[in-house]
Each structure stands twice: as structure tokens, then as C-alpha cells.
Amino acid sequence: MLKKLLHSAFSLKSLTSLILLFVSLNTFAANPDDLLPPDEAFSPSLSSSSPESLTATWNIADGYYMYRKRFSFESETPGITLGEATFPKGKIKDDPGFGKVETYRNKIAVQIPLIRDASVSSATELSLKTKSQGCADIGVCYPPQKKTLTLKLATLPAPAMDPIAAAKKPGALSLTAPANDVFTPTASSSIAPIPLSDKAPAAGLSLADELGITGLDAPNEPLHPDEAFGFDLTAVDKQTLNARWDILEGHYLYQHKFKFEIIDPAFGVSLQKVSLPKGKEEHDQYFGDIVIYNKPIDVKLPFTGETDEITVKSSYQGCSKLTGICYPPQHKTQKVSLTNAPAAIASTDTSAKSNAGDNNSTATANTVEATNAVAATTKVSAQDGFVNKLLTDSFLVVLFTFFLAGLALTFTPCVFPMIPILSGIIAGQGSDNSTRKSFFLSLSYVLAMASTYAIVGVIAALSGENLQVALQNPWVIGAFAGLFVLLSLAMFGFYELQMPASIQSKLTNISNSQSGGSMLNAGIMGLLSALIVGPCVTAPLIGALIYIAQTKDVVLGGLSLFALGLGMGVPLLIIGTSAGKILPRAGAWMDKVKAGFGIMMLALAIWMLERILPMTAIVLLSGILAIFTGIYMGGLDALNETSTGWKRFFKASGLVTLLYGAMLLIGAASGNGSLIHPLKGSFASGGSSVAAVEQKLVFRQIKGVEGLDQALALAKQQGQTVMLDFYADWCISCKEMEHGTFTDLNVINSLKETVLLQADVTPNDDLDKALLKKFGLFGPPGILFFDKNSKENLPFRIVGEMKADPFNNHVQEFLKTVK
């Protein structure tokens, strides 16, 4: 019967096409923000400080970063091979689920030893093939970049001479200058001079000899300090700077000589404690145990307060092992603009561990002495975690992870409504049913559903428009709910819908068999179910969409979404196949089973209408359905002595259902919108009817980007944190959180000092789309948290539904970061 009914659904094809066309005309392609070309975002170059090595440098634009594990190098010059590359220490993100990912910002200089055959000792040029990959902070990740760079090589030096003899050669650099000419800081220096021996160097000995520094065999000229210790200061975000030193091979900086100071700070702006990376410990006969840096380093300079620009004075000092020169203290004053810097991202507390020899002196508010510390792990949001997996994990691991994520969505609004639909399709096969046929029907449904998720997901990521969200309008939802009503009435046996005989004959010839046609119908229902019944915004889905939008890798992104759909479909396969084995073949029992599925179809229609109708109307419709169900179950039928146990059971169940339906009608009449507590607050002690007052979070409604900016500005003036909730009437997960999570007393208490904003994107108009695009969201539910400076704390962003207890823990963790 259902087979014929589903064939008749083809008559709706034109209507469906018109609906989809209408929706598409109301959508727009939200292009991602303009990005720098790869060569500008990550500008590579080669340099060489000695004939035996080279330095590969990438200048990284503000707001971009590169992955260490994505670097690789290969010599294309015959006779020249590469030694093991030495990388500077990067910033490590450590997540218990996704492992460690090391990244670099601003600049990275990689030291690569060169190994030359004797036959090419006089080679003048090297061709180096490089491979690298990086991302932008806004979420876009570039494909791997392959570049071939060339470098003019220095000639290998002649055999070394005795250093004393070399020093006596005409034109040789004299290293016997008075020590104070090298070490003594200027009068304006704020750093104490390095302690020196009171004994002047012995006659004929250089300063390097006196300090025990060797390696003067090569006739190297001393480099300018700006070349030996290339310095740059850039903005990481609006409350963090990055100081970068590119320390050339053969040179080093003293850890205890770093000092930072804000010049003429704006009101409320002050440096926080600076933590230096771990250095190399050495013993010096004059300075004792010291810590040095002989490789490029990055130092983060956190500060409090707000300002559009900041001027920082950085002080440091170092030496050259190649020439024996120790440079005077260097002072660099640099102004950094923060206008275009991204918002600051809070991280968990840092647990500092000071090494021996660190200077832990107390600093003033705007002058900070650096100490050695281990950086803390940064919190990563769930959707960003899935993006990281797509970027870093192997192909099979990614697919398996998304498959498991799909399984985890089994009994959520993403999957649960599809169970009665598929079961109804199988029950409609009647006597022509079997376990094998049920399996293939279920498989057709699941494959169509998973394929739809993949295709629609790729389209959404590339265009910026979510087709599932676009289909959540009253006309489409009303039409689909009406289709469920028609299907349910057919299940009750009121009528059979048939196509004209000529059309039915042609379709039969095309499908060649009834079973093929049935599987085609099941596939169509799977497609429509994915598009309309279960629009689901979850962390793995958003992670895949972000990855596709960033990298344009539709293959991995699309297959990940397909794996997600397959994971969601596994329970459907099990239930559908089991239904084919368990359901009776024909007779009175089969009619009752089909009637049961008819009731489920009507319930699905009401569930669909919940997205566009007020809850009181839904309670009213549910009450009517419950009363009809109770009567159909025999709640009002008379019993006699010959009545079987099953008949008595169904009569009792019918009576209970009738009573529940009556309670729903009373609740709807009194304005109650709860299906769980229909009579709550309906009767006061005096007998008068009053509406129930439910304790829950109270949101202030905002509209569009301008409305949000105004609300954030007000919260900033009041020094309050902000929570922004994206909501829509058709978003089932949003309503689950509204009636569950947001009514929890612990959640209410945790957010009592937080400004609660809500953006109702039900209309999905231009203002709603612009607001979603601003935060890179494809639809609700989405919950964003802003600190007291009205800057979003990205790692705490929530996409999808979250129960009360984990949500409350999430809120508590966020509030700890802003105290």
C-alpha cells in the first residue's frame, strides 16, 4: 500500500521544485573575507651566514600562522645534501583528544646544514625545494605550498690559520679593545652592566681569549647587532604582542638581560608577567651559571587594558662565538598598531616553572623582567577540534572519527525523527516484506540521507548558505507536515492515493521491478528527511564546513560529512532490518501495526509544525491526537467476560491516553505551552486559572550586527560579561536547551551577573544572515561568550545542544578566565 502511496508522491515533484526554486531565490552567497595570497601571508627567503649552512626564513603576516610538521626540504642541486633541520620552539596547543600541534607566528627561521661533495665544493648556487602549510586566524587554511628557492653559496674557506698569526696580519680585526668599550651600557640604559673582571686582559690576548671563547679560525667580520639578532615586534591580538629574535648561527643572547617597558602607556594599560622559553644552560668563568639562546626565539608580551596602539621598549644583550665580540646592551623602541589585530583569546591559567639562574625580581606595572616558564595549554572549542583533526590526522582516522561522531548523534533531533519514517516505509510493504528487502530499503534511505548531508554540506561551506536552514520556512514545513498527514490517513486505510495508470505504467517500466521502485522511493524520503526533517547544527558538522570553506578540499570534507551521515544511519539500518523480521506479514495484526505508524506520522506532522506554530497550538493539537489515539486503542470500548488480556491492556492504555489528551486540552486553554506539565499553574488555590510562571533565563532580543554592537557597547560600559544565543523557532535543539538547560537553577545562578542576549534568526533575512556570517555560523544553535571588554572568547563557543550540567561547568570555566 505504501509503495503505491509513495509512487503517488511523484505528483508533488513539480511543487517541490517550485518550493526549492523559491527558497534559492531568497538565498545569497556569503563569500568569506578577503585573504592574502599565500606568498604574501607566508613569504619565504633563503640566506646564509656560513658556507656550511643556510637559513630558510618565512615572514608570516599578522593574523596568520604555520605548522611545524608541514615543513619539508629537499636539495635539487647535485652533490649537495641537507643535514637535519633545526627549528625554533613554536607555540604548542595540547588537546587531550587531538594531540599536540606546534605552530609559528610572525617569522620562522629554520637552520639547515649543507653537506657538499668534494666535486661541488666550489658550487655557486643551491636550488632548494620547500613544502609548507599555514592558516589564517579567521579559520581559513591554505593548501600545502611548494616553492623552489635559490641561494648563492659562499666558497668553502681555506684551511684555518693560527688565530694569533691571523690577528697579526695586516687589516685583521683587533679584539684587544678595552672591555668597557664593548660591555658598558650607555648612560640612558635602564639595565645594569654585565659584571666584568677588574683585571684587564693580558697583553697580547684578545677579549675572546680572556673570556675563553674560541672559534676565531674563520676570517669573519663582526655582524651588526641588528643582523646578528634580527628583532621584530608584532601584534598577536589586541592584548598580546610577540617579540621575535632571529639569532644567527654562532651568536647568542643572555636570558637574564631581557627587559620590556611600555612607553607612555594609555590609561589602564600595563604589562603582565612575561614568560621566556627554555634556554640552554652554560657555565661562564665570570658570570657563573647562565642561560642563553643560540636559536631564534619568540616571546609573548601580554598586557591589560585597551588601546589602538602601543609603544614598547625591548632591551637585550648578546655575543658572537664566531668573532668573540660581545655587543653592548641593545634597546629597541617600537610602536605597534592594534587597530586590525584580532580579539584576544583567553587561555587557561599558566603554571610557571622557573629554572635555575632566572631573574625573578619584582617588576613595576609597566616594566617587566622576563622569567622562564612553561606555557599553558590553550582551550580549543569542539568545532575547532574537528577542524584540527581534518588538518592533522590521517585520512582513515578522520573518516572513522566522523563516523563515531555520527553514532553519537543517534537519539538527538538529528536522527530520532527519522526512525518512524523509515519504520513506516517498511511497514507499508505489507505481505511483500522480508528481512532482506527491509535491509535494502533501509540502506537506500541511509545512503540517500548521508549523501544529502555531504552534498548540501559542501554547497553550504563553499557558498556560505545552508540549504537546510533556507528550507525552514512556513510554506515548506507546512507542505511537508501535510504530506505526513496524507501518509498517516493512508496508513489508517481511509483511502489509497494512486497516480494515473499511464504514468504509473511508465514508472514501472523505468524501475523494471517493484522492489527497485520501492528503494527509489525510500531514497527520496531519505533525501527529504535530511533536508527538512532533521536540520542539525553540531560541532562535527560545523568543523567539516569550516574546513571545506577554508581549504576548498571538498573531497576530504565531503567524505567526512558522508561518514557522519553513515554513523547517524547505523541505528536506522539496525531498526529497519529488525522491523522487517519482527513485523507480522498480513492480517488484522498488520492493520493495527500500520495504524500505529499512522499515529506516529501524525505526531511527526505536529512535531514539524512546532517550528512555525506557538507552543499552545502544539499542545492543543497534541491533546486532540492523544484523544483520537485513546479512542482508537479502545479506551471507550466495552469489555465483557470473554475479553482477552490484550484487549484489556489496550483499553487501559487508551484510557490513560484519553486522560492525558484531556489534560493537554485544559493546559492549552489556560495558555500553558508544556507537554510535560500541561496543568502546571493552571489552577490557583482560589480556583481561578492562571498561567504558569517558569523560572528560566531571560534574554534581551537583538537584531542584526548593529543591534549586537549596541548591546555589547552597553555591557562594556557596565563591565559585564555577555552570552549571545542564536535561536530559531524551527531549531529543535534550541528549544531543547530553552526548556531544559536554560531552566536549570545552577545555570541561572551562574549567569546572574552576565548580560544575556538572543538573536532570533527564524526569519533568516539579510540582517540574520549578516549576523551569522560575522561569526562564521551556518545556523543555530550557537552560543557565544564575550569578556568584560566585549571581545568573544572563541574557545568557549558552543555549537549544538548541551545539557545543563556540562553547560554549567562550561560557563563556570569561562567566568574564571575573566575574573
Automatic annotation (TrEMBL):
Segments forming domain Thioredoxin? 664-816
Report the function annotation for this chain: Required to facilitate the formation of correct disulfide bonds in some periplasmic proteins and for the assembly of the periplasmic c-type cytochromes. Acts by transferring electrons from cytoplasmic thioredoxin to the periplasm. This transfer involves a cascade of disulfide bond formation and reduction steps.
The molecular function terms of the Gene Ontology recorded here are:
electron transfer activity; protein-disulfide reductase [NAD(P)H] activity
Uppermost EC category: oxidoreductase
- Organism of this sequence: Cocleimonas flava
Q: What's the protein here called? A: Thiol:disulfide interchange protein DsbD
* Signal peptide span: 1-29
Segments passing through the bilayer: 395-427, 439-463, 475-497, 518-548, 554-577, 589-609, 615-636, 648-669
One GO term (biological process): cytochrome complex assembly
> Which compartments is it annotated to reside in?
Cell inner membrane
Q: What is the lineage of its organism?
A: Bacteria, Pseudomonadati, Pseudomonadota, Gammaproteobacteria, Thiotrichales
